[in-house]
Amino acid sequence: MSVAGDDVSLIVPRRGDRLVAAVFVLPALVGVTVFVLFPFVSSTRLAFFRVDRFGHIGRYVGWANVTRVLRLPELRTSLAATAKFVLLVTPASLVLGLALAVAAYRPLRGIALFRVVFSSTIATAGALSAALFVVLLAPTTGAVRYALQSIGLLGPNETINLLSDNRWAIVAVATVTVWSGLGLSFILFSAALQGVPEVLYESAALDGCNGWTMFRYITVPMIRPMIGFATIAFTLNAVLIFGQIDLLTKGGPGHRTDVLAYALYHASFRDGDQAKGAVYSVVLLVVCLLLGVIQMRFLRRRHDDDSL
User: Fold this and answer.
1) How many C-beta atoms surround the C-beta of residue 54 within 10 A?
2) Longest dimension (CA), the chain
3) Which CATH number fits domain 72-307: 3.40.449.10, 1.20.120.230, 2.40.280.10, 1.10.3720.10?
4) Cis omega (within 30 of 0) on the bond before 73?
5) Burial of residue 116, with CB atoms counted within 10 A of its CB: 0-12 exposed, 13-18 middle, 19 or more buried
6) Upper half-sphere CA count for residue 157 (Cβ side, 13 Å)
7) What are the residues whose beta carbons fall under 8 Å from the beta carbon of 29, sequence distance 6 or more?
């Protein structure tokens, strides 16, 4: 079937093709329904009822739970901690991953070994990364303490506990998160660099362009879709962080690392306030949706500006 005056042919899918497509899409739909839609509907429903610590639903209270939670100072503290954590994790993950990918892209002898090393953290679970850094950051026996002593920042008998310091706790957790996600960032950007035509670099080199100029005007524009995808992925991962917080700081000290996802767990399972936890879950989902929409609109605008 073709359109008059146009060379483009429209292929009409057959019934069998639709059936095959439905078979492949069905597992994803089931997963989204069971693990996303159903929990969201249940949490939204709990937010409008009085719920005991065992999850038994009582009488309908309308917006009382929502207004109560939105007025809590701890919600604002959690939102501030989440925003700070995202600002620490996302840029560092992008910059370090891209820098390592560009460095490993060069055809040097033995570079394959470095590629394996750079991507090795992708095989390390978040809990294992946190446990490793608990040992490294130990106040008296950790390698970080000895390293600081060796460069003169700590005295021979001084100790330091970054995970209990009000200023450095969230930085320490962010460092663990960046390190554990560095392998994924490296792999994503390495894959994107493989799609950049080599002829562009050769032409730029003939024109006398240096490495920074080629990176700025060739590499970055060509891999911008991957930068956008990685930005969204690492931002959402930072917003939904839980394991590292639970193993390293448990939201402390002084709620400085009590990010939104961990505050949800704390309200639901420690305080036993299921309605409060339901409101937190809805707030968390709204934050994720807003971040996704803002980033997608920004990336689409940048793409439209580049195409002009």
Assistant:
1) 7
2) 85
3) 1.10.3720.10
4) no
5) exposed
6) 0
7) none
**Distant-in-sequence, close-in-space partners of 129: CB < 8 Å, separation ≥ 6:** 121, 176, 179, 180, 244
What per-residue string of b and e applies to 173-194 under the rule 16 or more CB within 10 Å gives b? bbbbbbbbbbbbbbbbbbebbe
Kindly report which listed range (52-56, 200-204, 245-249) carries the lowest average pLDDT score. 52-56
Task: Report the range of poorest mean pLDDT among 9-18, 26-35, 126-135.
Answer: 9-18
CB 247 within 8 A of CB 127: yes
3-class DSSP assignment, residue 128: helix
Write down the number of H helices and E strands in the chain: 15, 2
Contact 231, 297 (CB under 8 A): no
- How much of the chain is in helix, strand and coil states, percent to nearest 5? 70, 5, 25
Q: What is the pLDDT of residues 89-110, one digit of tens each?
A: 999 999 999 999 998 887 777 7
Q: What's residue 4's pLDDT? A: 47
For the chain, give every domain's residue range.
14-43, 72-307
Nearest CA to 264 among 89, 32, 75?
75
